[in-house]
Amino acid sequence: MAALKINSERLNSMLKSTCTSWGALGAPSTGMSRLTLTQEDKKVRDWLIGECKALGCEVRIDQMGNIFAIRPGTAKDKKPIAMGSHLDTQPTGGRYDGILGVHAALEVLCTLHENQVETYCPIALIDWTNEEGARFPGAMMASGVWSTKSSTPLEACWGIQDKEGVSMKQALEDIAYLGSTPCDYRENGLESHFELHIEQGPLLERANKTVGVVTSVQGMKWYAVQVTGAGGHSGTTPMLDRSDALVATSRLITAVRDTARKTELGVATVGVITCDTYSQATIPARVDFIMDIRCSTDEMVDQLATTIFKTFDTIIKEENNGTSYEIKRTWGLPKSIFHPQCIEAVRASALKEVSENQIMDMKSRAGHDSAWTSRVCPTSMIFVPSKDGISHNPNEYTSPEHCALGAQILLQAVLGYDEKVRKGDY
Amino acid sequence: MAALKINSERLNSMLKSTCTSWGALGAPSTGMSRLTLTQEDKKVRDWLIGECKALGCEVRIDQMGNIFAIRPGTAKDKKPIAMGSHLDTQPTGGRYDGILGVHAALEVLCTLHENQVETYCPIALIDWTNEEGARFPGAMMASGVWSTKSSTPLEACWGIQDKEGVSMKQALEDIAYLGSTPCDYRENGLESHFELHIEQGPLLERANKTVGVVTSVQGMKWYAVQVTGAGGHSGTTPMLDRSDALVATSRLITAVRDTARKTELGVATVGVITCDTYSQATIPARVDFIMDIRCSTDEMVDQLATTIFKTFDTIIKEENNGTSYEIKRTWGLPKSIFHPQCIEAVRASALKEVSENQIMDMKSRAGHDSAWTSRVCPTSMIFVPSKDGISHNPNEYTSPEHCALGAQILLQAVLGYDEKVRKGDY
Fold first, then answer.
1. Which CATH number is B8-218+336-423's, of 3.90.550.10, 2.60.40.2470, 3.40.640.10, 3.40.630.10?
2. DSSP letters for B191-204
3. Complex ipTM above 0.90?
4. What's the superkingdom here (chains A, B) (predicted)?
5. pLDDT digits 0-9 by tens, A210-236
């Protein structure tokens, strides 16, 4: 089994081919814009299912459009060991975030198929729907539903609308991916879940390492902040008479960054902002923005949020001009702890490919579908380096060698885990 | 002639009636959303033309949709003395900005008609198209074309598009207001131009005065600022590695306000902002905003702009993280000086209605169509108080008494000016 090798050339050329065909921003950029459940997403899904069926997989589509492609094992009573990730991207994302994980899983299935490997457990490839939450707000949406641990259950997710007012359910129907398999781990369960992903940060590269063994996912919370002032004419309202919601917002956003830097508790970001006026001659009366906070522990998330809100209070008091703010919690993912058995399977697999000093245990600073699966089945992840730590950006890049290394470790981790189950160890 | 009085009840009830009928935001608000060249605007224009024709006026529509309703005078070789303003509003504006000026002009025509007054010059009512620039960017657009002094001439204005991609020319055609009269003062000229308007600021109210004799319009310039950073993942990019365009923008916007306050040179406002990301998990790579600067003199505008840009440079240097900014001048209106004869006509008229201590000479801090007409014909304006100085806001309010006072002063100013022309003084 040690001799089993994925095909790097096949993996990388196939990844390039699908990214060029469906959702590419266009040369010279290798950037992607493949929003979930669009026609581009449908095309790559259709292609994926065709490939998996050709490899002898049974394909199930669940109620959230998640694709489960299952290669049978010899055991008749075992659930699949899964390799999951996602094919959707940010509006201006890259070609590796999520996509690499699904392609690596397909490459593992190809390798098993061409080597006629008989596994004990069934082996599944999963494409999770709407991981990015970029079209339908709510990241890792469909794995959250599947885990039944998300605060947004199936019916609520179906009702969420995109900017054009299209509901998730409608979008699933529009591309014929509203499946009948229950989106519920209790009815369509897994033995375990592995995910290869790019790091999306600079830590592996800086430490000059090539493999991250992911042991946890940091906690994260989003807050919707609404700042209210008073409108007025930009020419006639004296500076000292203004209650300018955008100036107040600007001070709050600066404080978000400064507080995160100062406390060193984690990261805090404002990415989405909308201002109520589109006429230049009007002083903004209302601004809405979303603040994203992520820290190693849930306690640190709350501590950073509390510290930021205290600076908000100080700023609004200083402004002393009638501006005010309100906060609403909109989304969160508590810290996720990965499973020792899966972590061990990844580490053992990595050690077969690279020397120990190339490997680093790390937490994931981004959310992933594995964060949800880890709540209901043993889970871990493999990270490979991101050039300059860049992600969610057309300049996202991971070398073909690192992509192949990740896929190879995924293969061995799955086989290693399967072997433990076969032996009755897990 | 001293006995000639406008009808306050008719003026105020008609203003209320048209505002309730066409473009109202709806009770309990008295706010308006009557964007230029929309169906609401068409309906109020159609109504206005009907009223003017019933009063014996000749109506001309020019190439920018400006409505000239002209009541004949006895002199055959004189151009009209005009009373102009606008019927369009901001997206969430009030019922007095512009609208009062047109209604007052109509009330003057009614008063002249029912008293069978024969003026020497023709008397014109003008509804100027797209004063607000809220639908088609570029405030006071059509009076600018008419004056031939605007940097955006007829064909360029026709090509300007609204947010839905409808061109100005198309919009004019859509509501049948693309007229054939040349939009050019040299071919469709005026003897002089008077405009009644609400102050839109708090100065009259604070000084406990009721009439502003407007002697000038302050200079104003708009700048488009583009801030560039680098995108990235909000979870994985360490705080110190970020080049966050929105944080940099926030510091710049705060500096715009603080610099205007500190220098006391004038007012500076950021009203429109767009951020390139609509996915929360992404660090903004690009933000665009528009800065509006207005001061008593053009030199002060430039001085305030220069001081603000210096603080921008300091901030970007402090950020020291790869963010940068670029500036483009987008629109401007140099200071406008009104004509002594028109100013005198307004002052003399005001003195017939109120005691001298009720009257204040003032500059206009907002742009008005009169700023453009003043460049090609004698012009002045009358201001009446705005409650709490609020404008461009549904809470905009001017009392019926002040509306009537303004209309009465407009009537007498026009008649006084006409008398001077008749006598050969002007």
1. 3.40.630.10
2. SEEEEEEE--SSHH
3. no
4. Eukaryota
5. 999 999 999 999 999 999 999 889 999
